[in-house]
Predict the structure of Transposase (putative) YhgA-like domain-containing protein.
Amino acid sequence: MILGSENDQSKELLLAFLNDFLYVPALQSFTSVEILNPIINKQSIYDKGSILDIKAKVPGYGYINIEMQLTNHNNMHKRSLYYASKLIGNQLFVSDEYTKVERVVANNLLDFPFFSSTPYHSCFRLMEERRHELFPDLLQLHFTEMPKFIRQDQAGKIPMNDRKAK
């Protein structure tokens, strides 16, 4: 897989993808990315093992998980949250301060419709339900539904300046 490889070309492609996908302003663009081991180690023999498609770390930004799913097993929302939770939970070691916890962004590229809403991209964050106050930006779950994107693109409904559409 070209996006998850350790070579320079793969890292450049991944950086371009992340900068556009996350709408990083040009003057603040990510300039480096570290591809990490995609295997999330079990903490006990009873834990469910997990292998991510792409696991990366962007210095000063946080951890990124990119999942590409071709088939709808009707569990993507739970699967995405589980993987993101593992990335959060595995950041600290004995005596580490909680201030070391970094942002986790899960990018789910789906080859099937998943939500009933029209937009091809959905982003979920934690929010206080009455005041609609966003929790500190430590967790983002992105879902990009490729069939919706293709339909909207063919119908001319994707703006030319939509950086995700590149």
Notes: The two ends are 19 Å apart (CA to CA). The first strand starts at residue 34 and ends at 36. The beta strands are 34-36, 39-40, 50-51, 54-58, 62-69, 103-110, 121-125, 139-145. Residues 91 and 101 are 6 Å apart (CA to CA).
